[in-house]
Structures are given as C-alpha cells and as structure tokens.
C-alpha cells in the first residue's frame, strides 16, 4: 500500500544528487602542484588517489531496475528507495574522498608555507615532520562512521527528510555489491 511519501522521496533524491555533484566539484578544486622531487610525498599521493577515486565514482553508472508496475505507487516507492540508497552511497563515497583531499590540500599548503619556495633542508625537518603527522592524524579520523555522522549532522541542520536514508551498514553493502 502506498504511503504517500513518494514526493518526499523524490525531493530527497534531488538533495542527495545535488550534494554529490557539489562534492565532486569541490574535489576537483583540491589541487596542489608538486615538483618531480615531491611527487611521491604522501600528501601529493593522497591528492592523486582522491582525484582517481572521484573519476571512478563519476564513471560508475546507475543501474535502474526494470519497471513493471506501469505507474504503480508501490513500484515507484521501491525504485525511489533504491535510488536513495544508491545516491546516499555515492554521496558517502564522494564526501569521504573530499575529506581526504581537503586534508591533503591543507598539508600541501602547510608544506609550501614551511618551505617558502625553498628546497627542503634539515632545518625544515621538524616542521615538515609535524605537518606529516598532522596529515596522518587527519586521515586517520576519516572513518566510515565519521563520514556518515558528518553527513547526517549536515542533513539534520538543513532540515532534510531522512526517514528512508540508509544506515552505514546498508551503504557499505551497496558499495561492495556494485
């Protein structure tokens, strides 16, 4: 039996897709130039990994179920719920990528400030090591639970309808199943 919430589900899909698009845009803006000597520094490697992960995510197509209901409200509800799971999983992945890219970008800016346009020397060692430790700590805090909690808090602040939003376990199963 139809529950009358398909309009709310459709709005939720639009919200999730907009967040996903915005995150991909922000990921693309997380750039840092590395010299050939710096190419393999962890922060620059993380940035490259994030850009590659965003490209893979962007190229993963949505696979709709064949619709057999012919306008049936229950079939529409099921498809909307499926799209909510898919778009939630994509947004989750994009947000995790964005958080990692932003941490790496902060590291790159800190590194550039420490070096001041110079090549690294032993005098820069302690400051560069501190920046590296900060990057590792930030990356370590970007857990799946943190990402979901961060997204949920933003959704609650925005007053979004969340009744059909999937749990972390559902998102993780969806990602593994794709």
UniProtKB/TrEMBL annotation:
Name this protein carries in UniProt: Uncharacterized protein
Species this protein is from: Penicillium subrubescens
Lineage: Eukaryota, Fungi, Dikarya, Ascomycota, Pezizomycotina
């Amino acid at each position: 039996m139809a529950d009358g919430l398909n309009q709310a589900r459709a709005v939720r899909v639009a919200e999730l897709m907009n967040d996903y698009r915005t995150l991909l845009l922000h990921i693309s803006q997380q750039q840092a130039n590395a010299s050939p000597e710096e190419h393999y520094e962890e922060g620059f490697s993380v940035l490259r990994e994030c850009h590659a992960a965003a490209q893979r995510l962007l190229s993963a197509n949505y696979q709709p179920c064949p619709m057999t209901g012919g306008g049936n409200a229950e079939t529409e509800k099921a498809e909307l719920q499926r799209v909510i799971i898919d778009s939630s999983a994509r947004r989750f992945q994009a947000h995790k990528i964005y958080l990692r890219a932003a941490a790496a970008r902060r590291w790159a800016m800190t590194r550039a400030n420490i070096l001041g346009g110079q090549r690294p020397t032993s005098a820069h060692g302690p400051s560069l090591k501190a920046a590296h430790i900060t990057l590792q700590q930030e990356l370590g805090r970007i857990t799946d639970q943190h990402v979901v909690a961060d997204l949920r808090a933003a959704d609650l602040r925005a007053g979004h309808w969340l009744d059909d939003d999937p749990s972390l376990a559902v998102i993780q199963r969806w990602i593994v199943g794709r």
